[in-house]
Design goal:
The chain is of the alpha+beta class and 433 residues long. The protein has three domains: 201 residues, no CATH class; 132 residues, Alpha-Beta Complex (tt1808, chain A); 84 residues, no CATH class. A six-stranded mixed sheet has the order 1-2-3-4-5-6. Strand 4 and strand 5 form a beta hairpin. The longest helix is centred in the first third of the chain and has 22 residues. About 1% of the residues have low confidence.
Length: 433
């Protein structure tokens, strides 16, 4: 008798996803790392199919999984709860592929459930007549046995190489479902109405929020692990701070619990993370995070950088210097330590002058000074300079990079241009100066 599967609903119309989905299910409790890799792969195959067949979606700037997930026409039509599931699969898969950290049995199970949620939505919305996946059954998952060792790193790498080799051929062969060309054309015409897709989402997706504990456990934990942090280390999660939280009389004698403290090698706090449930605006935690930073600074003589997140949006705030800004993840220990060190080593940009051997023309020097003023005194993060052809835009950019690095405001700079020839030309000028 064959093993019952939570993904049996894929068999009729979505057979090209069935094998990989069942591998996720098979490994979930026995080898969570393998399950995470297969879940990420199945998600990627699904999104590639979507971007080929749903004409309401705009092709992303590149075909990476991250680009597809965050393409606005896709992200705006996925309910928040399902979007969290997708991001969880993506991030956990990254940890499994690139990291040497252990993937827990609970995370393997969560990845399988998240994949079931997403593929269930996909089948309901995009199958003619609408597929009806069953509720997820944990008892369908094979239990880990003592005689079944987990796959080695070499075995996992070999699996990834084999899967990658056959992906392109599989996608091309399965770009459509079992419908005829006429039926597929009709389906694409229907899908051109984004409102219809939104309505289908509302009908088919369940809860759109995680609790605060689930936000931490299934989203923020994985984001931290992506950046090389272990959120389960002692004194990292739910760190107690004493005698500095507001009490009922307006003083600061209360006790609080910081969701996460990220420690430096000198045992001082580099950053803290305040987590909120996914339904809440991440900025709800801003004031509470500030109070926690006060507490940690009082006890450890170093003010940590502040993060607050609901898993969906994450903000970073070094309130000694810059206003909050939204980011896509957390910094590594080395990156945070560098930002802490910057507080004492960063120079005043207004006192810097551009080197005349790079920019000797008066308007170039004036432009460089205005950019430094914008970044420094005004605490802005963007500047736009418009200059005519031949007036020295590349030299000006070199001067600005030189000033930012001399002042310890930046370590690495990304230079972009719209043609390869311009990049090569700029590279020669950078090397020269």
């Amino acid at each position: 008798m064959s093993q019952a599967s939570n993904f049996a609903f894929l068999k009729e119309h979505w057979a090209f996803l069935l094998q990989d989905a069942q591998q996720v299910e098979s490994y979930a409790l026995r080898d969570p790392r393998a399950a995470s890799i297969y879940a990420r792969r199945t998600l990627e195959l699904s999104l590639k199919w979507l971007f080929v067949n749903d004409i309401a979606l705009k092709a992303p700037y590149e075909k990476s999984l991250a680009a597809m997930i965050h393409e606005p026409t896709f992200a705006s039509n996925i309910k928040k709860g399902l979007f969290h599931d997708i991001k969880f699969i993506h991030r956990l898969g990254n940890v499994a592929v690139h990291g040497d950290q252990t993937i827990s049995e609970q995370e393997g199970l969560k990845a399988t459930v998240a994949l079931h949620q997403f593929l269930g939505w996909l089948a309901r919305v995009y199958t003619r007549g609408s597929a009806k996946p069953e509720q997820f059954h944990v008892n369908y998952l094979p239990k880990a046995g003592a005689e079944e060792p987990q796959l080695s790193v070499d075995q996992l790498e070999k699996i990834q190489e084999d899967l990658k080799a056959k992906d392109d051929a599989a996608i091309k062969a399965k770009e459509k479902l079992t419908q005829t060309e006429a039926e597929l054309k009709e389906l694409k015409e229907q899908l051109s109405l984004l409102q219809q897709v939104k309505e289908d989402n509302q009908k088919t997706i369940g809860s759109d929020e995680y609790t605060e504990a689930e936000t931490r456990e299934f989203i923020i934990d994985v984001m931290l692990r992506e950046a090389g942090w272990d959120p389960k280390l002692k004194n990292t999660e739910e760190f107690e701070v004493l005698d500095c939280m507001p009490d009922s009389l307006g003083g600061r004698t209360g006790t609080g619990y910081v969701d996460y403290v990220l420690w430096g090698s000198d045992k001082k706090p580099l950053a803290l993370v305040e987590a909120k449930r996914t339904r809440s605006d991440a900025k709800v935690g801003k004031r509470q995070a500030e109070l926690y930073a006060d507490c940690l600074e009082k006890h450890f003589k170093q003010r940590p950088i502040i993060y607050y997140s609901n898993g969906y949006t994450t903000w970073i705030w070094d309130d000694t210097f810059y206003p909050p800004r939204e980011v896509q993840g957390f910094a590594t220990r080395d990156e945070l330590q560098w930002h802490i060190n910057q507080r004492s080593t960063r120079e005043d940009l207004s006192k810097l002058q551009s080197k005349t051997e790079i920019t000797g023309r008066y308007y170039q020097m004036e432009a460089a000074a205005r950019v430094m003023e914008n970044f420094g005194a005004k605490r802005k993060r963007k500047s736009l300079i418009v200059m005519a052809t031949g007036t020295g835009k590349t030299r000006l950019s070199i001067a600005i990079v030189d000033m930012l690095m001399r002042a310890n405001w930046a370590r690495r700079i990304l230079f972009l241009a719209d043609r390869v020839a311009l990049v090569n030309q700029a590279k020669r000028e950078f090397n020269k100066h």
